[in-house]
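F.,

This is the one I mentioned.
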């Protein structure tokens, strides 16, 4: 019984701190360079996603620009971004 109470307390305290991120998946057989501007951050950063890769990114939401085409998308945590044939598509996670 005491262990159950402790476990419930841990779950209650950990809940608000759960971290979510957008998922970025590159379906193409080539790497792409992205410019990432995270929400609340003053500077952007460049990021390379290799061919056929899937990563978690943009933990607080961000704006992604595919440098080869200039296409820009706005991404929220829990969203999925798929690069297919050089085009980014956002699938809302809400």
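My design for it:
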């Amino acid at each position: 019984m005491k262990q159950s109470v402790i476990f419930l307390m841990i779950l209650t305290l950990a809940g608000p701190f759960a971290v979510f991120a957008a998922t970025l998946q590159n379906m193409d057989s080539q790497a792409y360079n992205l410019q990432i501007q995270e929400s609340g951050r003053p500077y952007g950063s460049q990021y390379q996603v290799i061919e056929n890769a899937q990563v978690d990114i943009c933990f607080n939401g961000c704006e992604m620009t595919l440098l080869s085409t200039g296409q820009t998308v706005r991404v929220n945590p829990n969203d999925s971004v798929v690069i297919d044939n050089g085009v980014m598509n956002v699938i809302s996670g809400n």
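The helical segments are 2-14.

Talk soon.
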